[in-house]
Amino acid sequence: MEEIPSRKSLGEFLRSRRERLTPEEAGLISYGQRRTSGLRREEVAQLAHIGTSWYTSLEQGRSVNPSEDVLNNIAMALQLTEDERRHLHLLARPVQQETIEDQQLITGLEQMIRALEPNPAFVLGRCWDLLFWNRAAEFVFRFPSFSSHMQSRPNYMRHFLTDDKLGAGKKDWEAKSQIMIARFRADYGHFPNDPGFKALIEEFMQTSRLFRESWPLHDVQVVTDCHKRWYDPRTGEMEFEHVTLQPPTHPDLKIMIYTAGADTASRLQSLISSTSGH
After folding, report:
1. What's the pTM value of the predicted model, to 2 decimals?
2. Around 59, how many Cα atoms within 13 Å sit in the side-chain half-sphere?
3. Helix (H) or strand (E) holding 272
4. Interval 91-143: pLDDT, tens
5. CB pairs under 8 A, 24+ apart, for 235-241?
6. Where are the alpha helices (DSSP H) in 22-162?
7. Which residues are CB-contacts of 29 (< 8 A; sequence separation ≥ 6)?
8. Rounded to whole angstroms, how far apart are CA atoms 100 and 77?
9. CA distances from 129 to 13, 67, 252, 255 (A)
């Protein structure tokens, strides 16, 4: 029988979180030599107040249906962060979500993204395909020129991993990339059985060293609103307030808005105006 991706991912995630936690960190006394790194399965089961065989079934990707309380107990036992706890619930109890075409929404989003100039803004689809973006986003994130007649949209994760100019001169680029991959995995948790996600993961494992090293760590991080700094040799240091919005009827869409500081907005507006006829 073919293994269901969400169950396989659940087992791998639980194993990775178990192996990073020492008995001392979990408040347990460790006796003798240990053959495994981190906690044993029976120790996690003990801390979560569930049977060892039942927890083992979860790690092995078997067809079991843990309750919300059981998942929360496991999350406490493994000392998961809030983002990791949500990811655990998504993997254990995946929700099937269909993509719904809504032309009125699509048209409205496109108009909104354009109206936000000179603040960079773009819309991501389920697998991080770029659906719309404005001129400011082209300058800041080095996206290609947008056209509604494009045969295929670029993928944001692929663009991030493969465009060397994005990370040029940035000392913390590898750390930022690891955060981006952790966010990609968090979104994958919503759609673990999606063939589009699976194909991208296989591609990035082949083409990106950083992705190949980071993905097996099972780190997850949800995008949060925050203050961001971004450097580009054409504009210098830029500052933004970043927010992420999601239409309530389309949870597979993300609207990424970077509200520029006054000086940043002025420089971006000058760039857009100087190239508006090109």
Report:
1. 0.84
2. 18
3. helix 262-274
4. 988 766 555 556 677 788 889 999 999 999 999 998 999 999 999 999 999 99
5. 235/139, 235/140, 235/264, 235/267, 235/268, 235/271, 236/267, 238/140, 238/264, 238/267, 238/268, 239/263, 239/264, 240/119, 240/120, 240/264
6. 41-48, 52-59, 68-77, 82-92, 103-115, 135-141, 156-162
7. 23
8. 38
9. 25, 33, 11, 12
